[in-house]
Design a protein that fits this description.
The chain is of the alpha+beta class and 431 residues long. The protein is built from 14 helices and twelve strands. The longest helix is centred in the middle third of the chain and has 42 residues. It is globular and about 75 Å long.
Length: 431
C-alpha cells in the first residue's frame, strides 16, 4: 500500500505583484478555476501520483472581525498557497516538481517575497511548506494509478457485458468470459492492473508510534485536566456566552465569484481562511482538538468516511501567522449546498468542536451544541470565510467517490478465486 501525504507551500506576495500573478494563474486554466492538466506553466497531468492540487491567494476579507474584541485590525500580507495531495512522501513529490516543472514554478514564485533567480527552488519550497495540523484521506492507500486503472477496467467490462445475461442467464459463465477478456487485454497491453506496492516500513512504524503516543500523552495530562476542569468549564462557558457572533450575509459579488467556480465537475473545491479567537485558552483548545481530529482521521476514518460524511476526498487544517489564523481546504463530491447540509445534519457537533474557536462563529453551548445547527448563520459564516481558488486540479475528472468505490469492488471481484451465483450476479450488476 502506498500512503498519501500533503504539501502546502505558503509565501507572502511581493509588493505590486498580485495583479501579475493573477494574470499568470488565469493562463493555467481551461475553465474558470479549473486547471488545464497540460498547461504550459505547471502541467499537473504529467505527475501520475498527484490526486488534487490548487493555487489560491489567501486574502482574508474578515481580518477586521477581530475589532469586535476591542483589538486593532491585524496587518497581514496576501499569501500565495500552493498545495496538493499526493501518493508517497510529499518531499519526494516536491523534488520531482522542482526537476520537471522548475521553470513554471519559478515563474509563479517570482511573485513572492524573497524569491529570485538564484533561489534554490526545492529548498525554498521545503522551507515554506506548512504542515497540516489535521488531515483526512478518504481511502488511505488508493493511488492515482489505481483509480485510473480501475476506471479503465470498468469501462472495458461495461462495454462488453451483455446486459440481458446479467439477469437472465448464467452469471458464472458471464463472469468467466469477462475474466478471460481482461486477461487477453492485459496480455495485449491494452489494460494494466498493477498490484499494490509494499507498505513502507517507516510509515507503518510512524503510524504505530502515533497510535500509542497520543493516548499516552492524554493519560499523562488527565490528572491535570481533572484538577483544572472546573476552571476550564467556567472559562469555556464565559466565552461562549460573550464571544461576538459575526454572520452577516456575504457580499453578493463575492458569492457570485465563488459560485462561478463550482459545479464544473462532480467534485468541488473549498478553501477557507479565518482568525482564531484571541487569547491562549481558545488557541490552546483548538490545538488540542485538531490533534484529536488528526488522530481519529489517521487511525479510525481511513476507509471511505469521516464520521457519517462520505463525500470528502481529502481535507486539512493548517495554522498560519503564528497560529493566529487557520486555513481549511477540502475536495468534496456534490454541490456546495449538499456539502454543507451533510455536515449540519450528520456532524454539526464536529464542526462546532473545531470551528467554534474561530472569530465570529455562531454561538455554541458546551462546545458542541447550537453553532452550526443555527443553519442560516452557519451558512453565511462559511461563505463569508470562503476564498476563490484560482487554479484547481483533479487527476480523475468525472469520477466521484461512489465511482471509485464501485470500480475498486469490480477489480476485487475480478480477482476473487470463487463466487456463488448470487455474488457473481451482484458483481455483474456493478458494471
Amino acid at each position: 500500500m502506498t500512503p498519501q501525504s500533503q504539501f502546502m507551500v505558503v509565501a507572502p506576495l511581493a509588493a505590486g505583484c498580485e495583479g501579475g500573478l493573477r494574470a499568470l494563474l488565469a493562463t493555467m486554466n481551461s475553465a474558470p478555476g479549473i486547471a488545464d492538466p497540460n498547461n504550459a506553466v505547471l502541467p499537473f497531468g504529467e505527475f501520475d501520483c498527484l490526486h488534487f492540487a490548487r493555487l489560491a491567494l489567501l486574502d482574508d476579507p474578515t481580518l477586521g472581525d477581530i475589532e469586535a474584541y476591542g483589538l486593532p485590525r491585524p496587518r497581514a500580507p496576501v499569501y500565495l498557497a500552493f498545495l496538493g495531495d499526493c501518493d508517497g512522501p510529499a518531499r519526494e513529490f516536491l523534488a520531482k516538481l522542482a526537476r520537471r516543472a522548475g521553470a513554471g514554478l519559478r515563474r509563479i514564485f517570482s511573485h513572492c517575497e524573497g524569491f529570485d533567480a538564484a533561489t534554490d527552488l526545492l529548498a525554498w519550497m521545503t522551507a515554506h511548506n506548512v504542515p497540516s495540523s489535521a488531515s483526512y484521506v478518504n481511502w488511505v492507500g488508493r493511488t492515482v494509478q489505481q483509480v485510473r486503472q480501475e476506471g479503465a477496467l470498468q469501462r472495458a467490462l461495461a462495454a462488453k457485458v451483455p446486459r440481458d445475461s446479467v439477469v437472465l442467464t448464467n452469471p458464472q459463465q458471464t463472469r468467466r468470459e469477462l475474466i478471460a477478456l481482461v486477461d487477453a487485454e492485459v496480455r495485449a497491453g491494452r489494460l494494466t492492473l498493477t498490484p499494490p506496492a509494499p507498505t513502507p516500513l517507516g510509515w507503518l512504524l510512524a503510524k504505530l508510534a502515533h497510535l500509542i503516543a497520543v493516548p499516552l500523552a492524554g493519560l499523562v495530562a488527565l490528572p491535570f485536566l481533572v484538577v483544572l476542569s472546573p476552571w476550564l468549564i467556567v472559562a469555556l462557558r464565559r466565552r461562549e456566552t460573550s464571544d461576538p457572533e459575526i454572520c452577516p450575509r456575504p457580499d453578493t459579488a463575492a458569492l457570485d465569484a465563488l459560485q462561478d467556480l463550482e459545479d464544473r465537475d462532480v467534485t468541488n473545491q473549498y478553501t477557507a481562511l479565518g482568525s482564531v479567537k484571541p487569547g491562549r485558552f481558545r488557541r490552546g483548545l483548538l490545538i488540542v482538538l485538531l490533534v484529536l481530529v488528526d488522530y481519529v482521521a489517521r487511525h479510525l476514518y481511513t476507509r471511505g468516511h469521516l464520521a457519517r460524511v462520505q463525500s470528502i476526498h481529502f481535507a486539512r487544517w493548517a495554522f498560519i501567522d503564528g497560529k493566529s489564523r487557520v486555513v481549511f481546504v477540502s475536495n468534496y463530491d456534490g454541490s456546495h449546498q449538499s456539502y454543507m447540509d451533510d455536515f449540519i445534519n450528520k456532524v454539526g457537533w464536529g464542526l462546532n468542536l473545531v470551528f467554534s474557536n474561530g472569530v465570529g462563529w455562531p454561538r455554541t453551548d458546551w462546545l458542541v451544541c447550537r453553532g452550526a445547527r443555527i443553519e442560516q448563520h452557519f451558512k453565511r459564516y462559511q461563505r463569508r470565510h470562503q476564498l476563490p481558488t484560482q487554479v484547481w486540479y483533479k487527476a480523475y475528472p468525472g469520477l466521484a467517490l461512489v465511482d471509485l468505490n464501485r470500480n475498486q469492488r469490480i477489480r476485487e471481484g475480478l480477482e476473487r478465486a470463487q463466487m456463488s451465483d448470487a455474488q457473481a450476479l451482484a458483481w455483474l450488476r456493478l458494471l
